């Protein structure tokens, strides 16, 4: 029985990782072409095997990020070294997803959020964009998750 728990935890982590990857792709499509989010969701669910995907997380990110985009951008812009409009579209989507999770998915540890976004940047972003994503989201986490980041950064 005790061996089942790590397997289930790993399977859940993989489902969430898949949800973030599909969400990033769908948000990228939305950011470039616009369109109805429900139509984009239906398209992704039709065109992709999402049997190993956390569909609840996929839907939350796909609909939640655009719904809160102004608020997310307010958290991001002061942490950037350039205007948000000048960011690579993939980086912008990853940063918004990360800021969304930091702000609204408090059950997910901030380090997990940052790591997942760094991995997305390595997979879909430009060379070394993961370093930029890491630095920006670390600064956002210090603002949105101050107690958690301070607790985890204390010397042992």
Question: How would you describe this protein?
Answer:
The chain contains 8 helices and no strands. It has helices at 4-33, 37-47, 55-67, 69-76, 89-104, 110-124, 129-144, 146-152. 31% of the residues are buried.
Radius of gyration: 16 Å
Count of alpha and pi helical runs: 8
In sequence order, what are the helices and strands, one letter per element? HHHHHHHH
Q: Which spans have pLDDT < 50 for at least 5 consecutive residues?
A: none
Strands, helices and their partners?
Layout: H1 4-33, H2 37-47, H3 55-67, H4 69-76, H5 89-104, H6 110-124, H7 129-144, H8 146-152
Helix pairs in contact: 1-2, 1-3, 1-5, 4-5, 5-6, 5-7, 6-7, 7-8
Protein traits:
globular, 156 residues, 8 helices, single chain, mainly alpha
How would you concisely characterize the structure shown here?
The protein has 156 residues and is mainly alpha-helical. The chain has helices at residues 4-33, 37-47, 55-67, 69-76, 89-104, 110-124, 129-144, 146-152. The longest helix has 30 residues, at 4-33.
């Amino acid at each position: 029985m005790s061996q089942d728990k790590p397997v289930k935890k790993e399977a859940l982590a993989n489902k969430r990782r898949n949800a973030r990857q599909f969400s990033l792709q769908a948000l990228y499509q939305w950011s470039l072409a616009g369109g109805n989010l429900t139509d984009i969701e239906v398209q992704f669910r039709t065109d992709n095997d999402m049997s190993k995907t956390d569909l609840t997380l996929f839907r939350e990110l796909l609909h939640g990020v655009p719904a809160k985009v102004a608020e997310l951008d307010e958290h991001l812009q002061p942490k950037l070294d350039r205007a948000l409009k000048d960011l690579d579209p993939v980086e912008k989507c990853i940063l918004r997803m990360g800021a969304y999770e930091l702000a609204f998915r408090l059950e997910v540890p901030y380090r997990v959020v940052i790591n997942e976004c760094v991995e997305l940047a390595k997979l879909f972003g430009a060379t070394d964009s993961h370093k930029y994503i890491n630095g920006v989201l670390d600064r956002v986490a210090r603002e949105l998750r101050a107690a958690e980041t301070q607790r985890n950064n204390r010397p042992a």
